[in-house]
Amino acid sequence: MNIQRRTVLRTAAAASTLALPLRHAFAQKKPYSYKYANNLPVTHPMNIRAKEMADAIRAETQGQVDIQIFPNNQLGSDTDMLSQLRSGGVEFFTLSGLILATLVPAASISGVGFAFPDYASVWKAMDGELGAHIRQQIAKANILAMDRIWDNGFRQITSSSKPIAAPADLKGFKVRVPVSPLWTSMFKALEAAPTSINFAEVYSALQTKIVDGQENPLAIISTAKLYEVQKYCSMSNHMWDGFWFLANKRAWDRLPPELQVIVARHVNAAAIKERADVAELNTGLQKELATKGMQINQPDPAAFRDQLRKAGFYAEWKAKYGDEAWALLERSVGKLA
Ligand code: X2X
Q1: Nearest atom of ligand 1 to the alpha carbon of 214
Q2: Max Cα-Cα span within the chain
Q3: What is the pLDDT of residues 279-317, one digit of tens each?
Q4: Is residue 19 included in any domain, yes or no?
Q5: Is residue 13 one of the residues assigned to a domain?
Q6: Rg of the chain over CA atoms, in angstroms?
Q7: How many domains does the chain contain in total?
Q8: pLDDT digits (tens, 9 = 90+) for 65-98
Q9: Which atom of ligand 1 approaches the CA of 40 most closely?
């Protein structure tokens, strides 16, 4: 070994010893490496806005909060991800209030069939008293729900066997519903044959004909390519659905208050942008899905709503949620039952 090389090696060794305390200080400046998991394809507006949001948070906190996104059920089904959120295996998770109701029963009230006539009434309720009521109930389960719920959308029924034009078409119809008591109850009241399946399994359940149909907003029917395994799409608008952006409470409390403020601001801002994206997507998607071969029909929602009323659906769920919560819902949408 020549002298020059030895000198270089010695210098390098000295430098790395000196660098140790420095490296430690740097590591302390980036202690919050958090995971955010969700069930949607990367092309869905939720993941597009979430990526921008994570980038903005990283930039504004100078790398102190680094959120890694795990889309598309990479970490498991909604049921798995909910347990991971509770144990701290993931720090953030977006979940439909209706599925969260398996843990926090009050959280499904926003999904009562045909409750919301339009987006104006949705945001009035969810950004107002009804949303605040739900977030309080979620907090009791040691989970923090951020202020602004993200949009999933108004749900439509798809099928591989026939269009759903009237309530009679749902009789005995084998339909996948998410894992949630309200969903099962509603489709039973419509006399369908619902099966609870996590979204992670929906494409293959449709492909292998374990079920004949499912229901989801157009943005999901499109981005999850459900049109490849479904022929008919009935614009039933039978319920509105949204995703609460949830945080593990212990992980959230580890963030210093000034970082919490930054994270919350970006998460809520991303939700507002995502809502606009989904609304815009849904207006153009009927045409696009038709060009992909789907047959789209427009059933009359009144007939389905009457069927739910006759079956005692509204009375049953009003009793479950209680008069107070039901009154909060009716204040935004008018009398339901
Ligand atoms: O599971 C579904 O159908 C989905 C993707 O819409 C929800 O997360 C509720």
Answers
A1: 3
A2: 94
A3: 999 889 999 999 999 999 999 999 999 999 999 999 999
A4: no
A5: no
A6: 24
A7: 1
A8: 999 999 999 999 999 999 999 999 999 999 999 9
A9: 5
